[in-house]
Design a protein that fits this description.
Elements lengths: L4 H29 L3 H5 L13 H6 L7 H36 L3 H15 L6 H11 L5 H25 L3 H9 L4 H30 L2 H6 L8 H8 L7 H21 L1 H9 L6
Family: Belongs to the binding-protein-dependent transport system permease family. MalFG subfamily.
Organism: Labrys okinawensis
Protein name: Maltose/maltodextrin transport system permease protein MalG
Length: 282
């Protein structure tokens, strides 16, 4: 069926509006990151910098004592460690949990699943005190591993629910055939179920990484120096001074966005397949 000219016009207008709303802030960050400080404070504001200044990127990627580069690179290390570590630990728990939720469908198991999801829906501010006291007792305040444990409280319910929906799309007959051939439950999960649901697991891992990478509230409260501060907190520190270098903040924001973009680009096929998994049961 052919679309009318009016429908095509509105379609392209919608796509154009979506691109403007999505890309305009990123493009403005790029312009600010290479603009001179005088270009960012003049009135009227200049949308095109008169001189290109890439020195801020060099400052952020140069490891010197007591410099913005030291703070940024240390925070990059902490963000990578906390997001990847929390994702790996969450998947270690969520994969068998999601399989159990998918295969044992009774009221008790469903109640547990919804109870787990309720913890994911709980406002973060309500969990501050118990998490703080727990980390304090374990000696994990201002510690990357402590941050990993906190992030697991966010990621594990989400990944378990997401992976459960992927396991729902795997035919149970495959597992029954594997059991008849003598495979154990763990062997069936690893060699039969996971290969069919790998797209959904990869998608869950991607979203978990993004959630942990962008988390700010817990990282702000439970870290106090460069040993554990993540990129989100460090960028906020860059913007907290009396004489804020907005170009430096913009450059840090763009560099911070690169790792998730690269991960999403690498996993794009799994992302598309994982989002559509479960829409049609085999």
């Amino acid at each position: 069926m052919q679309r009318s000219a009016v429908a095509t016009f509105f379609l392209y207008c919608g796509v154009g509006l979506f691109l403007v709303v999505t890309l305009a802030p990123v493009l403005w960050l790029a312009v600010m990151s290479i603009s001179l400080p005088s270009d960012l404070t003049t009135k009227p504001l200049s949308l095109i910098p008169r001189h290109l200044d890439f020195s801020r990127y060099a400052r952020l990627l140069t490891f010197e004592a007591n410099s913005p580069g030291e703070a940024f690179l240390m925070a990059l290390r902490n963000s990578l460690a906390s997001s990847l570590g929390a994702t790996a630990l969450s998947l270690l728990v969520a994969v068998p949990a999601g399989w159990a939720f998918s295969r044992y469908r009774n009221r008790g198991v469903s109640a547990v699943l919804y109870g787990v999801l309720a913890t994911y829906m709980t406002p973060a501010v309500a969990l501050i005190l118990p998490l703080y006291f727990l980390l304090s007792m374990l000696g994990l305040l201002n510690n990357v591993f402590g941050l990993i444990l906190v992030y697991c409280s966010i990621l594990t319910p989400f990944t378990a629910w997401f992976i459960k929906s992927s396991f729902d799309a795997v035919p149970g007959e495959l597992e029954s055939a594997a059991a008849i051939d003598g495979a154990s439950t763990l062997q069936t999960l690893w060699w039969v179920t996971l290969p069919y649901a790998r797209a959904g697991v990869a998608t869950a891992a991607l979203f978990a990484i993004l959630l942990a990478w962008d988390e700010f509230f817990y990282a702000l409260l439970f870290t106090s120096n460069q040993n554990a501060k993540t990129l989100t907190v460090t960028i906020a520190d860059f913007a907290a001074g009396r004489a804020t270098d907005f170009g430096l903040v913009s450059a840090a924001g763009l560099l911070t966005a690169l790792p998730p973009v690269l991960i999403a680009f690498i996993l794009q096929k799994s992302l598309v397949a994982g989002l559509t998994a479960g829409s049609v049961k085999g």
